[in-house]
Amino acid sequence: MTDIPNSLLNLVLMHEVFSKARIEAWNSEVLGSWRWWLLIALMLVPWIFWWRFVDKKRLTEICLLGMFVLATASWMDELGSELLLWYYPYKTFPLYPQLVPINYTVIPITFMLIYQEKKSWKSYIIALIIMAAIYAWIAEPILNIIGIYMPINWKYSYSFPLYVLIGVSHRWLLEGILKITGKSSEKNS
Description:
two-stranded antiparallel sheet; CBO0543-like; mainly alpha; transmembrane; 77% helix; single chain
């Protein structure tokens, strides 16, 4: 290897051991279990539902919001997993520390549908608060009870304001982009 300090080389070797152990545990305990099938269903079924109900005339705008949410949820989940705020004993893929079906499907689809249906800021924020309460105090505890999600240094109530903040900040960002592109389109006409 190149000139890598021993401390960093040790980290690489520990990472290799951890990855192999995670794959072995996943193959023997997770793959094919009912929890794994539930996660597969959560990763696929909501997209079918979403496609049926999404406003196809606003597809680009709605998908852009969904991508913002997906990126943020994934980044925050990666950070939380790395900081040992929570852990996922059951995952769809062994090498992802994140809960892919939730970050890539359930959360973005929920935000996209709320954005699509709630045109005014007031109704949007009310819907976000209801969603945040359901996710923080019902969905997360259920995932914990069935063994998919294990909070370590995290309380469910910490999630509530984050869900709301993601929804508000991402709609604000999207509206700013739409406003800029609208002005740009007018200049080009």
